Amino acid sequence: MHLSKPNKAILMRELKDYFMITLGLTSYSLAWAAFLLPYQITTGGTTGIGAIIYYATGFPIQYSYFLINAVLMTFAIKILGPKFSIKTTYAIFMLTILLEFFQWLVKNPDGTFPQLLGPGQDSMACLIGAVMCGLGLGIVFNCNGSTGGTDIIAAIINKYRDVTLGRMIMACDIVIISSCYFIFHDWRRVIFGFVTLFVIGFVLDYVVNSARQSVQFLIFSKEYEKIADRIIKETHRGVTVLDGIGWYSKDHVKVLVVLAYKRQSVEIFRLVKDIDPNAFISQSSVIGVYGEGFDKLKKK
What we know:
Layout: H1 4-36, H2 45-57, H3 61-80, H4 86-106, H5 122-142, H6 150-160, H7 165-178, H8 181-184, H9 187-211, E1 213-220, H10 224-235, E2 239-246, E3 251-261, H11 265-275, E4 280-287
Antiparallel strand pairs: 1-3, 1-4, 2-3
Helix pairs in contact: 1-4, 1-5, 2-3, 2-7, 3-4, 3-6, 5-9, 6-7, 7-9, 10-11
């Protein structure tokens, strides 16, 4: 009886992760099919390589993406182990399918891509496509997923060389985007590629960090027991009671320490003020709270 509940909870969490990864990949795929490919915009990663191959030869982007990642995953499983590859493998297959589906959905009967925003709207297409890509990738990363590509290259190199993952990914992306100059002989395309990469990174960071944004309360009150009981009962957040001394008055005081999600801030403030209008409260923002009731610690 005691083993079935945790197993069920783990299964539901995994199913939720795969659903959210699929949702993120849907946003990413639609961005490419509706905005980036029709306006011949590229960016980093193996999807960027696939886009460059498509612009040069007409070979579908999803097949290039899949073939490159299939080779990389073969090395990744041997070097990094099978645990690394489970969600990444799912994401690679699903992204390949979704890229093909959305291209089929938006293409004209003659096989060309319609420019949904109208001709000459490259900047707007770049911006919208990048935001959708960043949003999609942020959702995937929040569920401990990966779309493979340069992530795999960086992880493999990082295992043997003292080079940060971010620096390796950046170096790969710079080479990929710069190479589109040899296709179009137009520096505008290169600039659009870097703008797309920057916006994707900005949105991705925002999505990942905002999902983990929490607040810490320090609550000073003589009614600390009532406040602690109600916080635990009504907000389901843990409370730690610390002993303190007011240095001006030299009085002993009790300090409540509460970590909660940012969206619970107003509820906690109201709760405290209902019990003790004279309570002293300090609130500070924290990013990355790990442990029971918050994000799980992930071992790389």
